[in-house]
Amino acid sequence: MCNQTVGLIAAELERQGIATVAIQLLREVAERVRPPRALFVPFRHGYPLDTSENPKRQHAVLEAALQLLEEPSSKPPVLIDFQPGKG
């Protein structure tokens, strides 16, 4: 799905009271659209969780994304970089 579309849908869901986290592949788009909570990942297009041969990394991406929901001190919009060395 388009990075811009994901950010816009996330913003609307948040306005309806549903918390969201977007995994973004294009930092420029995330900075422009400003989804409420976004995790920027440095992977190639089509692989927001990295390659299928790396389930440990995929779990690390999902965990990092879900942790954004647990940050009460972070007021949206929040854009965090995934740290690849941690997965």
Quick tags:
globular, 87 residues, 3 strands, 3 helices
Q: Describe it for me?
A:
This protein has 87 residues and is an alpha/beta fold. It has one domain. It is 38% helix and 13% strand. The protein has three helices and three strands. The chain has helices spanning 3-15, 27-33, 55-67, and strands at residues 22-24, 37-40, 78-81. The chain has a three-stranded parallel sheet, with helices on both faces. Helix 3 (55-67) links the parallel strand 2 and strand 3. The longest helix is centred in the N-terminal third of the chain and has 13 residues, at 3-15. It is globular, with a radius of gyration of 12 Å. The model has no long low-confidence stretch (mean pLDDT 89).
Distance between the termini: 24 Å
Q: Given the helix and strand composition, which structural class is it?
A: alpha/beta
Number of strands: 3
Q: How would you spell out the order of helices and strands? A: HEHEHE
As for the number of domains, it is 1
Outline the biggest β-sheet.
3 strands, parallel
How big a fraction of the residues is strand? 5-15%
Placed side by side, the strands forming the largest sheet appear as 1-2-3
Helix count, per DSSP?
A: 3
Give the mean pLDDT. 89
Q: Considering DSSP H and I runs of 4 or more, what fraction of the residues is helical?
A: 25-40%
Uncertain regions spanning at least 5 consecutive residues: none
| Shape, principal axes of CA atoms | globular
Q: What is the C-alpha radius of gyration, as a whole number of Å?
A: 12 Å
